[in-house]
Task: inverse folding
């Protein structure tokens, strides 16, 4: 039976335990579903708050929740994080082969006594008879299967031991199950539900979009120099560089060190002591960069990773999404750069030659998706989300990928599309992209000969264009919903209604030209650099981060377990100088305030006194705490140059209400850099005329602008221009 009876109690617990004023997305509904004892399937992007979906119900339920987790490092991070929210160490434990006999007995005692609300276990540990026997003797509130995509051989990180979980759970106790994953194609989703026997599970699926991540594909030209230059542009920020093999990891880590960059290697060939040490150095911010194979990173709970670099193109789009998803988990900046050379793909295909034919086929199809993604001129975000079955208008990308920031040339695609559609209809069956390509290009293969496709009128009609052209046409046709891929017969192309309508009534349509990967476009690349929040007291923020690192070292914890970056940002904006004020900071619950808070408020109080700072929140701190969190988020979004309408939508505000917030921010003495937005509204000369009018007016009232420019600009646009004027002139 759950301890909570109503919604208010769940919300109170969220604030009391975790320090958050509101749930993210569908978190609340998910928690309620778990507490109601129902099977639950959660598909939520990295950084979306999956962990809270089982942590909060576990803390509010009778018994112990058993959380299946794939890696020891992940379990330890989770346990440290949960313990950081409260005073009782025994509230969470992990149970795996790294524990001594004495430590295992202590875990069991805490569970039996009722102290432990969460027990993290590896799937292998559940198979041991002594462990299943012990778990049968206790009250299990529910089972949580984290990284559930590991169940599916179609997933990017298949683990055979995950396939046995259902039978083991039945043997222990058929308690409710919550399965969670940050990445799952429709095929993988079906596999998870079928294997866990969760046909009646309630599905909660959030958008896979990560608006703060910037996606960029660069040609693989002088890649090491490019990487060094990029890291120097982002000095002091945490990042991961992924390489395909161990040798490249070692070489690149050494090269970075020689160039004065703090970096360490990580791969399965290192002894466990070195791997653990290097991982801890990265987690504890003792080094900035970790160079790794994909053996590193799954479930690593480090929220402040600012860039992900793929030295080599990943093996699947699912891997790419999962690996890039490790950036910006705190909602801050995350730059994802992948270096692409088709020769790398050829090498990967050669490595498949020794595998069974069926496995080769799966991996080749996955690689083909990656190639199309890398070579496409379409919006990266739209293509990536489409892969996971999500419709996403490219206009919402907000230039947060290279193809939207630097649009490519287009070509008329009507005739090419019609040929692809006519070929699929003529082939009269379920065929894959490569087979359709063989027909269009006029290749005499076993397949085209056997099925007499050489006799089709369409055979060879597209031989004047290269493979890359036709693959790009088919890929963009998929992205634009002319074609779809059948889930059960992976990779076979199907004509959608949109395609059939197009055949009946063709119209002009433009597709993107492929980028010329022979010439480096790195000078035109985003070169995104992190911007510190102009509202932040940067000196105080630096002092707070130093204090956090010092406490983290003393307690042997990752710094983010103490307080996350967004909490420190808010402290450096709001200046809380006592424990009651600190508890109102986003992400600081009662437990964290009691455990870690005093040295932080003491430091802030000294800083305020020594620098004679007028605190913006001296009056009525508690009553405006929630608004403060919104203000900080708005300021940080502006620093990341996110359009105002997108900020408003993300914060559930009307645009007019957001502008009212901006007016309050600048009136409080905080400077906002709105050039990125205002310069799109009007040119510099027009701005100067508007600002001159405000200078001449008695109190810079917006009505002056409405009277003069109301027939040219909307009231909201004029209010934004006034906010810029007040910010520039007064701050």
Result:
């Amino acid at each position: 039976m759950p301890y909570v009876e109503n919604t208010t109690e769940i919300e109170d617990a969220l604030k009391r335990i975790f320090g958050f004023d509101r749930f993210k997305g569908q978190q609340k509904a998910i928690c309620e579903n778990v507490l109601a004892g129902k099977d639950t399937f959660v598909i939520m992007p990295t950084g979306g708050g999956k962990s809270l979906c089982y942590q909060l119900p576990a803390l509010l339920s009778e018994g112990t929740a058993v959380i299946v987790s794939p890696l020891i490092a992940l379990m330890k991070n989770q346990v440290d994080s949960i313990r950081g929210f409260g005073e009782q160490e025994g509230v969470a434990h992990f149970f795996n082969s790294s524990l001594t006999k004495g430590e295992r007995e202590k875990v069991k005692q805490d569970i039996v006594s009722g102290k432990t609300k969460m027990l993290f276990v590896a799937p292998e540990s559940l198979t041991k008879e002594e462990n299943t026997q012990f778990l049968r003797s206790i009250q299990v509130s529910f089972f949580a299967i984290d990284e559930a995509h590991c169940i599916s051989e179609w997933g990017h990180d298949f683990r055979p031991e995950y396939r046995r979980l259902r039978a083991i759970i039945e043997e222990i106790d058929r308690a409710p199950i919550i399965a969670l994953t940050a990445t799952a194609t429709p095929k993988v989703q079906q596999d998870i539900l079928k294997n866990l026997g969760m046909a009646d599970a309630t599905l909660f699926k959030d958008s896979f979009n990560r608006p703060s991540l910037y996606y960029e594909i660069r040609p693989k030209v002088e890649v090491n120099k490019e990487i060094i230059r990029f890291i120097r542009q982002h000095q002091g920020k945490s990042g991961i560089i992924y390489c395909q093999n161990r040798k490249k990891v070692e070489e690149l880590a050494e090269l970075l060190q020689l160039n004065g960059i703090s970096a360490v290697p990580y791969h399965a060939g290192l002894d466990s002591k070195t791997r653990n040490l290097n991982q801890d150095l990265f987690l504890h911010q003792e080094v900035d960069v970790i160079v790794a194979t994909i053996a590193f990173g799954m479930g690593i709970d480090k929220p402040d990773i600012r860039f992900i670099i793929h030295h080599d193109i990943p093996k699947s789009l699912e891997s790419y999404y999962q690996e890039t998803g490790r950036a910006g988990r705190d909602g801050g900046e995350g730059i994802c750069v992948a270096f692409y050379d088709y020769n790398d793909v050829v090498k990967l295909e050669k490595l498949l030659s020794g595998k069974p034919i069926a496995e080769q086929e799966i991996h080749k199809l996955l690689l083909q998706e990656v190639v199309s993604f890398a070579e496409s001129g379409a919006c990266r975000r739209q293509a990536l989300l489409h892969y996971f079955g999500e419709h996403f208008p490219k206009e919402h990308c907000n230039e947060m990928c290279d193809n939207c920031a630097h649009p490519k040339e287009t070509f008329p695609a009507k005739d090419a599309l019609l040929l692809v559609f006519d070929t699929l209809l003529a082939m009269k069956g379920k065929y894959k992209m490569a087979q359709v390509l063989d027909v269009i290009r006029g290749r005499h293969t076993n397949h085209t000969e056997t099925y007499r496709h050489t006799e089709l009128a369409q055979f060879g009609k597209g031989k004047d264009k290269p493979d890359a052209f036709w693959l790009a046409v088919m890929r963009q046709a998929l992205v634009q919903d002319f074609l779809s891929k059948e889930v059960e017969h992976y990779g076979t192309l199907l004509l959608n209604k949109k395609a059939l309508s197009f055949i009946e009534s063709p119209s002009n349509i433009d597709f993107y030209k492929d980028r010329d990967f022979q010439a480096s476009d790195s000078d035109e690349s985003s070169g995104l650099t992190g911007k510190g929040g102009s509202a932040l007291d940067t000196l105080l923020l630096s002092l707070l981060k130093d204090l956090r690192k010092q406490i983290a070292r003393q307690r042997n914890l990752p710094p983010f377990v103490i307080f996350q970056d967004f909490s420190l940002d808010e402290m450096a904006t709001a200046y809380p100088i006592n424990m009651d004020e600190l508890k109102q900071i986003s992400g600081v619950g009662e437990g964290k305030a009691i455990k870690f808070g005093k040295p932080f408020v003491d430091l802030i109080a000294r800083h305020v006194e020594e620098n004679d700072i007028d605190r913006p929140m001296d009056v009525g701190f508690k009553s405006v705490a929630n608004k403060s969190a919104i203000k900080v988020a708005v300021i940080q979004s502006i620093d990341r140059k996110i359009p105002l309408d997108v900020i408003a939508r993300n914060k559930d505000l009307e645009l007019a209400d957001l502008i009212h917030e901006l007016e309050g921010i600048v009136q409080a003495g905080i400077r906002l850099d709105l050039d990125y937005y205002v310069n799109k509204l009007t040119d510099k000369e027009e701005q100067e005329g508007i600002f001159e009018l405000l200078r001449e007016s008695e109190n810079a009232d917006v009505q002056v602008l409405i009277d003069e420019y109301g027939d040219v600009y909307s009231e909201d646009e004029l209010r934004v221009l006034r906010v810029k004027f007040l910010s520039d002139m007064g701050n």
